[in-house]
Design goal:
With 178 residues, the chain is α+β, with helices and mostly antiparallel strands. 37% of the residues lie in helices and 15% in strands. A hairpin with a 2-residue loop joins strand 3 and strand 4. It is globular.
Length: 178
């Protein structure tokens, strides 16, 4: 349903959105370190993971991963159109399976419908032996972000709140890397 909404929504053009994303990336090349970028096929609902070996340009993978249904246009890659990987899960922490140390940056702990729950993803990582820290907005950060996480007027206050929260979570994150 979200894919259908995305495909029918009036949004900026795909080309103009691609230009914005390209301008915000420090480089158009995939980094040397492993990077997984998630998206969901807008028609089939299939979850996909792009990486340096996928043959997909980084700007297109990031664009697909940022294509919030109804807000930004789905991204065309080959014959398919893709939307935000957050449609499947806000964190997709399960992709860190096999890693010994995991820091999850969770913009929200909420999951709707069949989305994999953050708690279940973290429990699976821990049961496999990973040390895991989860960082999500605290009360002050949630207040700064407000109800609309895409509201550009809230960016500065949200950044300040996140910076203030950093000292409170630094020890937990450091313990994962120790």
């Amino acid at each position: 349903r979200l894919g259908a909404l995305a495909l029918s929504a009036r949004t900026p053009s795909e080309q103009s959105r691609r230009a914005v994303i390209a301008a915000r990336l420090p480089s158009g090349r995939w980094p040397a370190r492993r990077l997984l970028v998630t998206a969901v096929d807008a028609v089939s609902g299939e979850f996909v993971v792009f990486d340096a070996d996928s043959g997909v340009p980084l700007v297109d993978a990031v664009g697909a991963s940022c294509a919030v249904p109804g807000v930004w246009p789905p991204v065309t890659i080959g014959p398919r159109r893709y939307v935000d990987g957050g449609v499947r899960s806000p964190v997709n922490a399960d992709l860190a399976a096999g890693c010994g140390q995991v820091v999850v940056l969770a913009p929200t702990r909420a999951a709707v419908g069949p989305m994999p729950r953050l708690s279940a993803q973290v429990a699976a990582l821990r049961s496999a032996g990973a040390r895991v820290a989860v960082v999500s907005p605290d009360r002050a950060a949630r207040a700064a972000i407000g109800r609309n996480v895409l509201d550009p007027a809230r960016r500065a206050a949200s950044a300040r709140a996140g910076f203030a929260q950093a000292s409170a979570v630094a020890g937990e994150v450091a313990a994962v890397w120790a």
